[in-house]
Amino acid sequence: MFLVFIAIAMSTCATNPVTGKKDFVLITEAQEIQMGKEFDPQIVAMYGLYQEEQIQKFINEKGNKMARISHRPNLEYDFKVMDSPVINAFAVPGGYVYFTRGILAHFNNEAEFAGVLGHEIGHVTARHSVKQISKAQIAQIGMVIGMVVSPEFQQFSNLAQGGLQLLFLKNGRNAESQSDQLGVEYSTRIGYDANYMAGFFQTLGRIQKKAGASVPDFLSTHPNPTDRYAKVEAATKEWQAKTQGPYEVRRNEYLRMIDGLVYGEDPRQGFVENDVFYHPEMKFSFPTPKNWQTVNSPQQIQMAPEDGKCMMLFTQTEGNNLDNVVNKAVESYKLTEKSRKTIKVNGYNAIALVSDQNNAEDSTKSISLASYFIEFGQTIFVFHGIAAQADFKTYQPTFLKTMAGFRKLTDQKKINVKPERIQIKTVQQTATVQQTFQTLKIPSDKMETLAILNSMKLTDTVQKGSLIKTIGK
Predict the structure, then answer these.
(1) Which of 136-140, 186-190, 236-240, 350-354 has the lowest average pLDDT?
(2) pLDDT digit string (tens) for 94-109?
(3) What are phi and psi for residue 128, nearest 5 degrees?
(4) How many C-beta atoms lie closer than 10 Å to residue 8's C-beta?
(5) SS3 314
(6) Residue 472 pairs with which residues in a beta bridge?
(7) 417 with 271: CB under 8 angstroms?
(8) C-alpha 135: how far from chain center
(9) Fewer CB atoms inside 10 A, N or C side of the chain?
(10) Can you tell me the distance from the alpha carbon of 31 to that of 40, in angstroms, rounded to the nearest whole number?
């Protein structure tokens, strides 16, 4: 038995590519790569891809250049931009690295980008996620971001149904510090000034301070190590002493590249206005319950009150036959039908279903659903209104009001809505940031946000001929 234990222990230890020491891991490199391949399409489905050829080419070029000098150059890395306004970058096992357009909007030069790129590649090369999984320290993403909902409801999310047990693993401070060090090393070795990496972390801190209690998504999944800035600056000094400069910043080149980048929420993918959800591209609308939170993702729309006692889901289903789609839902979710009716919803064929899902072990976890399956052109959409059986009659009228309000969107003002975008302007005369914004007719209540976006203070001086970010349509 003792020899068997030794054999198991040896089989679960692997040499860490960064430290050269033995790590306790239960996942082989082949398994790690396979995990990444399985996670990637689910991440893309959750966020959506931001497709801009010049930006993608830039990220591929810098990412692959850095990967070749990293501690795991033989991995096949994959770099993507997510169509999300959140400020985040993250990596999953196997070499998959993601940047949101939200974080790209907040970089002000290539050196800042390179530092964060190196940080994320560092998580991969040091196998931080693999070690976390091996220790079973995993956290599942909430199916309804920012909402407090019952776990019983979450099974009806398309993400949950598709098996997205996605692991945004919150690394410990030691792992974050190590990735910071690797970010400095990797970005320096491909010729960037890593001092700007520390500067970007300060920008994140300003965003957090302005937002109050909330933190940027990057900080929520990347705990801020103590003395982070000082350690990054010290590491930069050390690596610059070991390497041959010059070290690039490339501010103007980066700013020109992101000119026109969508900023904030993209209304073309759906937006709520005066308690109505509009989808300009798919041309439909429906009322949303008053004072409910709404979260819109490429796969589905989720709505819930603050108390989390019920929720609604709206999504597109697979299949083109109403009865077959309903039958599949009943079978998949193990529903007990209470009623099924063929109806019309503003001229569109639909089936209204009321059902229960009983929990034999704990009746308090049994739920009831009101569902509308609506045939809209070649697509079948479905609403699910979900509540505990004891609460269902209270919320059913709210569910039905939203479902019955589904209709085709014909208002051209809503259809032609435009997103805000990053606009790069040339400063016409030397002045403070605040004076420059005043010249550009920036509203006073937007100035501090724009100053942070530019990694500047309103009292800083900007020189004539320099570039500055603004936001417009």
Answers:
(1) 136-140
(2) 999 999 999 999 999 9
(3) -60, -45
(4) 10
(5) strand
(6) 421
(7) yes
(8) 25
(9) N
(10) 14
Helices (H) and strands (E) in the chain, counts: 18, 21
φ, ψ (nearest 5 deg) of residue 283: 60, 55
What tokens does 29 get? Answer: 């490199």
Backbone angles phi, psi at 27, to 5 degrees: -120, 125
Relative to beta strand 276-279, strand 284-287 is antiparallel
The neighbour count for residue 53, using CB atoms within 10 Å, is 7
Cβ contacts of residue 439 below 8 Å, gap of 6+? 428, 429, 431
Is residue 345 a contact partner of residue 404, using CB atoms and an 8 Å limit?
Answer: yes
Average confidence score pLDDT of the chain: 86
Residue from 375, 252, 259, 394 nearest 325 by CA: 375
> In terms of Cα–Cα distance, which of 216, 205, 255 is closest to 54?
255
Determine which helix (DSSP H) or strand (DSSP E) holds 399, and give its type and residue range: helix 392-404
Query: How does residue 135 score in pLDDT terms, banded at 50, 70 and 90?
Result: very low
- Amino acid of residue 304: A
- Look up residue 123 and give its two tokens: 């998580």
Element (H, E) at 185: helix 173-189
Q: Work out the angle at residue 424's Cα, subtended by the Cα atoms of residues 419 and 429, and round it to the nearest 5 degrees.
A: 140
